[in-house]
Amino acid sequence: QVQLVESGGGLVQAGGSLRLSCAASGYTFSTCAMAWFRQAPGKERELVAAISGSGRSTDYATSVKGRFTISRDNAKNTVYLEMNSLKPEDTAVYYCAADRQFGLPVTLAGMDFWGKGTLVTVSS
């Protein structure tokens, strides 16, 4: 049974930092691209960052480039999202997702497995 469990969300002031983690189980983690998506109230779910199965390739939304860093530890079956210089507009539920393809790019519709999400709230 595939499970993706996010953690690390919470309330932070603008300019602060958070680190999200996603622990994966039930499939061969290192063969799958991983991604973080987010969905703000009243908005569509959007891609934040993605990383290839090896971790050598990454991709970021323009809005987070230079502030967020995606990484993975294949020995721990875990993917991370380091978020710095947070802004109120980063407030959203953040979802971890897995794509059974190895490389990038990934798309919302192409993700095979999803976590339940973790809420990030950035106060001004």
Give the structure's gist in a few sentences.
The protein is mainly beta and 124 residues long. The chain is 0% helix and 49% strand.
Q: What do you see in this structure?
A:
- By secondary structure, this protein is mainly beta.
- The chain is 0% helix and 49% strand.
- The chain contains no helices and eleven strands.
- The strands form two sheets. Strands 2, 4, 5, 6, 9, 10 and 11 form a seven-stranded mixed β-sheet that branches. The chain has a four-stranded antiparallel β-sheet with strand order 1-3-8-7, with no helix packed on it.
- A hairpin with a 6-residue loop joins strand 4 (33-39) and strand 5.
- 34% of the residues are buried.
**Poorly predicted parts:** none
Radius of gyration: 13 Å
The N- and C-terminal alpha carbons lie at a distance of 40 Å
Number of helices: 0
State the share of residues found in helices, binned by percent: under 10%
According to DSSP, the number of beta strands is 11
Helix and strand composition category? mainly beta
- Which strand-content bin applies to the residues? over 45%
Q: Average pLDDT, to the nearest integer?
A: 97
Shape: globular
Describe the sheet with the most strands: 7 strands, mixed
In N-to-C order, the SSE pattern is: EEEEEEEEEEE
